[in-house]
């Protein structure tokens, strides 16, 4: 089930086959020297798959290769999916982007902002602005992740059990209630910080729809797009297709992460719209095709093309970029010229980042080094799937961008 194959010759869609081979030559070295266990690359142009390669192993210890139907933990590539689902509710008139989140989750009624002190004795003040739906979609709510290890509030999250997981006794409603009691890093709408905001958005979807998040996504996104492998857990009959998860050792080599390999093998208590999905290349390619085609695939329309266009514009305050507004590592130079839309990074000024790309390109990636982007100007989608944590260890995404764009010759 779910096997993929190329659909068009590269030369027919403006891609040079000789230059495309540089991609495999480059990333094969990552497998040979132990930086990655294995990977899959998919490039589609004008709606057709022109390049599809797999290399290395989905499970090193078992000797199982990456195949075109391998299932991967996509972590934060779940965020665009949840964002699309939220905008479907917006299109139905069931929410406004300016609605305070407290209208749906009353525990967020009185947010407070960190002003100083240690994690054990944090000083706070009332926020000047309520957290609104658009703040969740753009990561400007002031929420955070415990694994950042940059701000005292990050430590507060960790001390409450939110580092690379959740307290065992809590479900999605429970974790949102906990987060609502913790300080914000800044007043909503004034800065950008990568955070649990999309998990909170998933809970808003549950409250509005009256359905658990997995059921809503299945009925409204996965089934209409025929995404057969995408869910919060892998079916027991398909577990042999799930790629093993690896972390890096001090030599930056891939080593099996036994604890996190248990993730996604059964339905989780917390349905994380921000990082809980698994998917296959076939499925996520169908999702990116829907986006590139303006919200429709095979006659099934999820969103208006106007809505997709609106989502993929920069919504950061004043049109600023991530390098200017982000707290922590996302302020690095490779994010210069990139804003953030409603669920995606958005490239406004490609020259600012010094990474070959196009204006209007939108993208995101996952904690296990997965990545995708959509380039409407070039009528192009690209997908890279692997299973190595964290995603910041190797310059996979910037190298892949250069290797893909240098192969465009029309």
How is this fold's topology laid out?
Layout (H helix, E strand, L loop, with lengths): L16 H16 L5 E8 L2 E12 L4 E2 L5 E3 L4 H14 L20 E5 L6 E4 L6 H6 L13 H8 L12 H9 L16 H13 L3 H10 L23 E3 L5 E3 L21 E3 H12 L3 E2 L2 E2 L3 H7 L10 H4 L12 E3 L4 E3 L2 H4 L8 E4 L5 E5 L4 E6 L2 E2 L6 H10 L5
Parallel strand pairs: 7-17
Antiparallel strand pairs: 1-2, 1-16, 2-3, 4-9, 5-6, 7-8, 10-11, 12-13, 13-14, 14-15, 15-16
Helix pairs in contact: 2-6, 2-7
Describe, in plain words, how this protein is organized in 3D:
The protein is α+β, with helices and mostly antiparallel strands. The protein is built from twelve helices and 17 strands. The protein has helices at 17-32, 78-91, 133-138, 152-159, 172-180, 197-209, 213-222, 281-292, 305-311, 322-325, 350-353, 396-405; strands at residues 38-45, 48-59, 64-65, 71-73, 112-116, 123-126, 246-248, 254-256, 278-280, 296-297, 300-301, 338-340, 345-347, 362-365, 371-375, 380-385, 388-389. It has an eight-stranded antiparallel beta sheet. The radius of gyration is 20 Å and the shape is globular. The mean pLDDT is 96.
């Amino acid at each position: 089930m779910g096997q993929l194959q190329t659909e068009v010759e590269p030369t027919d869609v403006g891609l040079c086959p000789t230059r495309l081979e540089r991609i495999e030559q480059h990333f094969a070295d990552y497998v040979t020297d132990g930086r990655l266990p294995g990977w899959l690359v998919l490039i589609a142009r004008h709606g057709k798959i022109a390049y599809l390669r797999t290399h290395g192993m989905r499970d090193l210890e078992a000797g199982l290769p990456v195949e075109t139907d391998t299932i991967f933990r996509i972590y934060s590539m779940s965020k665009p999916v949840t964002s699309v689902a939220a905008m479907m509710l917006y299109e139905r008139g069931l929410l406004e982007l300016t609605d305070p989140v407290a209208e749906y989750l009353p525990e967020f009624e009185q947010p407070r902002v960190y002003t100083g002190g240690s994690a054990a004795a944090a000083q706070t003040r009332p926020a000047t602005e309520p957290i609104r739906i658009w703040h969740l979609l753009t990561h400007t709510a002031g929420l955070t992740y415990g694994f950042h290890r940059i701000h005292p509030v990050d430590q507060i999250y960790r001390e409450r059990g939110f580092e690379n997981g959740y307290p065992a006794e809590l479900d999605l409603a429970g974790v949102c209630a906990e987060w609502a009691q913790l300080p914000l890093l800044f007043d909503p709408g004034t800065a950008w910080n990568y955070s649990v905001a999309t998990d909170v958005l998933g809970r808003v979807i549950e409250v509005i729809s009256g359905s658990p998040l997995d059921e809503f996504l299945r009925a409204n996104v996965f089934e209409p797009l025929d995404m057969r492998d995408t869910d919060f857990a892998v079916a027991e009959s398909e577990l042999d297709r799930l790629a093993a998860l690896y972390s890096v050792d001090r030599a930056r080599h891939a080593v099996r992460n036994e604890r996190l390999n248990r993730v996604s093998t059964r339905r989780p208590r917390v349905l994380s719209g921000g990082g809980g999905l698994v998917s296959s290349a076939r499925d996520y390619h169908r999702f990116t095709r829907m986006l590139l085609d303006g919200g429709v695939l095979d006659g099934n329309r999820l969103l208006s093309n106007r809505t997709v266009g609106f989502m993929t514009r920069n919504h950061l305050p004043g049109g600023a970029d991530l390098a200017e507004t982000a707290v922590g590592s996302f302020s690095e130079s490779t994010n210069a010229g990139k804003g953030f839309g409603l669920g995606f990074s958005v490239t406004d000024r490609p020259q600012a980042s010094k990474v070959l790309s196009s204006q209007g390109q939108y993208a995101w990636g996952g904690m296990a080094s997965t990545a995708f982007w959509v380039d409407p100007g070039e009528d192009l989608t690209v997908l890279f799937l692997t299973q190595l944590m964290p995603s910041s260890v190797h310059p996979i995404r910037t190298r892949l961008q250069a290797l893909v764009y240098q192969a465009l010759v029309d």
